[in-house]
Amino acid sequence: MLLAFSVAPTTAQADDGSVSEAVAAAVAVVRASGLPHETTAMFTTIEGEWDEVMAVVKKAVDAVSAYAPRVSLVMKADIRPGYTGQLTAKVDRIDKHLS
């Protein structure tokens, strides 16, 4: 399973509207999970089995909850049993068509 998610507090803690400290706490959870992952400006994508991926998302939400009483979570999943390494393989297949 690949799961792209975005988690952030619904209110900013910084005067400039930034939520980066809270988001960094969520990204730290993902990095500590040991699952393959990629973080971009808008989403973090993780790869693994359903239960382990969802456990990481819950921990990431809990980490952000420490910064604000209300949290926003957006998720999109590609559920394809029997396939691993898709975090990079999907992009490689597209790049092959662009070469």
Automatic annotation (TrEMBL):
Domain Thiamine-binding protein: 4-94
InterPro entries referenced in this protein's UniProt entry, alphabetically: MTH1187/YkoF-like, Thiamine_BP, UPF0045_domain
Entry GO CC: cytosol
Domain of life: Bacteria
Pfam families registered for this protein in UniProt: Thiamine_BP
Similarity annotation: Belongs to the UPF0045 family.
PANTHER family: UPF0045 PROTEIN ECM15
Protein name: Thiamine-binding protein
UniProt organism field: Flaviflexus salsibiostraticola
